[in-house]
Amino acid sequence: MNNINKQFTVLENNPNLCYLDSAASALKPKCVIDKINDYYNNYSCNIDRGVYPLSFDATKICDESRNRIAKFINAKENEIVFTRGASNSLNMIASMMKHYLSPGDEVITSLLEHHSSFLPFLKLQEEIGIKLVFVELDKDLKITVDNFKKAITPKTKFVQLTQVSNVTGYHTPIDEIVKIAHQNNILVSVDGAQGITHLKQDMVESDYDFYSFSLHKMCGPTGLGILYAKEELLNKLEPAEFGGEMNDEVTMSSVLYKAAPHKFETGTMPIAEMFASGTACEFIESIGYDYIESASVSLRNKAILELKKIPEIEIYNPLIDQGSTTIAFNIKGVHSHDAITSLVDSISLRAGHHCCQNLHTYLNIPSSLRASFYFYNDIKDVETFIKQVKETVSFFKEVGLIG
Ligand SMILES: Cc1ncc(COP(=O)(O)O)c(C=O)c1O
Question: How far is the CA of 390 from the centre of ligand 1 (A)?
Fold first, then answer.
């Protein structure tokens, strides 16, 4: 085991684990688990409410985490809203936009969106009559700047796009899209759930209006997400949820909200997870984005080159120069759910539509298999993966399911 992998208890406890499902959730290092335990072992109380030392100290640690995350993505502390995950962040954004969008306003989206990026806006279409406009994909299933430009009309008010597809792993040219959108007075919300995992983020440079992500996909705790939004937007926007601790004064007929970001954080937050969120950022920085990206992409590319040699395999994202860390594929003529029953004997990977059914419908397939690579994978995982795929293909040939 190399030094990086020694930091993952789960790898130590499962020596044969070939984990190729990091796009669903990354493994968690000891330092993150220790920090979660630190909360339960040494604090266990609520934050932001108590003035007694235990609560005061726990609050301080959560404030430090917010600060750490802000630095991690080069944002201001009051631009960081803690949420329950990327899905929660994206739902909050759509809810908040309800008050700023009008019937007939157009929102640009794409067939690549995860359901968490798409469905909150589909709901807005039903509820207030906005119109969703889909950017056309090119022949490689990519969003291009030209196709984005074609989707803009005088009615476009908002853009909701993924930074990196959770199926193909291809990158959206989001920075250029943001520039064009802003020239047209259009706000942009970026689903960064699959971007922040292996790409360094800088909110000042990129100028996103909103950026959403989940900690658990970047070696952090589950149940915690971030909604980044520019300070001036957060100050203007109405909260999407209401309850304890998000207000300064409540009367029988009125409420005065706290300042952002606290007006967006309702009720008791996932405190242990907030504790560990700063630790997750430090861990990612200690590994380094350069290494994370190059290790993940190069393993994925090695795997795809081997997979391409198997004629019974259909690959949906075959390009190797796109910085992708995922492979979406099927055994020709075999449903992914049938294939997975044999594959999961020795590898952990996904079968299904990966919460991106529109893309699968567009490809005219019900589902696909998805292998996703991260920096703690190694060449042995690639070999196990290819060996198991070959054995599965042979099995389906033997039973006569494929020719
Ligand atoms: C691109 C993308 N967006 C959003 C989400 C939702 O993240 P979460 O399930 O952590 O809320 C995911 C999760 O797989 C994703 O891949």
Answer: 30
